[in-house]
Inverse folding.
């Protein structure tokens, strides 16, 4: 059996290089901008409000923590994260609000709480994500960079651990 050998001259190598460069350019052009970064959050239910943390005047731009308010209680949250306030009963009244502190701890408050409380079970996050009810239980989802969505649920008045969504 005879082996075939193909010799590629300088013009052939240049042509091959042009084809490879063209394919790379097509792949780069077809990749959406920011595809490797955090995906856009899914739509929040109509019974939730997700608000960017930071002052409208821009006084806190560049600060690690910005002032937040919910149900008459002042607190601090990581600037450029989102405050998530939820109406779990769908009765037009917000029931609970969450923020992420600049040290990545997760805090929440509700009417009558007296202050902001750190969520139990040592959760850490980079932003809030969503809230909803499931089988009559309250569920909160947070975003963790390089790890994705995590959730916790409240069963009988007790917040359970954190689980990967």
């Amino acid at each position: 059996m005879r082996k075939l050998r193909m010799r590629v001259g300088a013009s052939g190598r240049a042509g091959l290089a042009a084809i490879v460069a063209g394919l790379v350019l097509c792949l780069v052009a077809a990749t959406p901008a920011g595809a490797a970064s955090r995906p856009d959050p899914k739509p929040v239910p109509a019974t939730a409000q997700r608000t960017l943390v930071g002052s409208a005047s821009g006084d806190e731009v560049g600060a690690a923590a910005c002032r937040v308010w919910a149900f008459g209680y002042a607190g601090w949250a990581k600037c450029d994260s989102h405050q998530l306030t939820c109406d779990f009963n769908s009765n037009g009244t917000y029931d609970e609000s969450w923020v992420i502190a600049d040290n990545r701890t997760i805090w929440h408050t509700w009417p009558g709480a007296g202050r902001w409380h750190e969520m139990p079970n040592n959760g850490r996050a980079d932003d809030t994500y969503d809230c909803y009810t499931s089988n009559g239980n309250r569920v909160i989802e947070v975003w963790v960079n390089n790890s994705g969505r995590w959730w916790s649920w409240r069963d009988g008045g007790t917040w359970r651990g954190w689980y990967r969504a």
Observations:
- The first strand starts at residue 48 and ends at 52.
- The first helix runs from residue 10 to 30.
- Helices lie at 10-30.
- Residues 48-164 form one domain.
